[in-house]
Amino acid sequence: MCHGCLPNTFERVSDIHVIAIDNSCGANAGHLYVVYYTWTGTQMKVFVSRSTNGGTTWSAGVPVAPSSATHHQFFPWINVAANGAIGATWLDRRNDPNNLLYDAFLGVSTNGGASFALDKKLTRVMSNPDNDGFCGEFMGDYTGNTIAGSTLYASWMDTRNGRFSQDDVGGYKVH
Question: What are phi and psi of 50, to 5 degrees?
């Protein structure tokens, strides 16, 4: 695991790749999916790659956010629903012209990770990573998601109180 800084902050970001498997009985049963962020030269961007052969080879990364989202994306997570729908969550700065404040987003793929059609904002209030409770140096990396039935439940760091980071949870029907 490598640590760098989230651009425009002193917040550390871990290079944590998250993997999920399609345990459904559908067309993509057994496929593996990994979500990660990478530096494109201008932004941190979240991608999903898939393997159809047990991890021997992997597809090129598919962006989870639309191409119009040109601000930093980070702390992604991924899961697969019982029907094979793929849910990816991440933090995204697209709604802040200063590229500092972030929202939590959800992307859903129903075609085996070939594309992510749904792009849904989960948060009601943007968070400032500088309000982490650790002098702007550690907001944590406590994002994640799980799928129960037809609902994806996501967790992320919320700093709306202006003093420290706390976990927040939201859900969305993925199928």
Answer: -130, 150
The H or E element containing residue 146 is strand 144-148
Q: Which region holds residue 96: left if phi is over 0, alpha if psi is between -120 and 50, else beta?
A: beta
Asked whether residue 3 carries a pLDDT value surpassing 70, the answer given is no
In this structure, are residues 28 and 11 in contact, taking their beta carbons and an 8 Å threshold? no
Joined together, the tokens standing for residue 17 give 């790749």
Which tokens sit at 160?
């709306």
In this structure, are residues 104 and 153 in contact, taking their beta carbons and an 8 Å threshold?
A: no
Domains and CATH numbers, the chain: 3-173 (2.120.10.10)
Partnered with residue 73 across adjacent β-strands are 92
| C-alpha count within 13 angstroms, C-beta hemisphere, residue 131 | 16
pTM over 0.85: yes
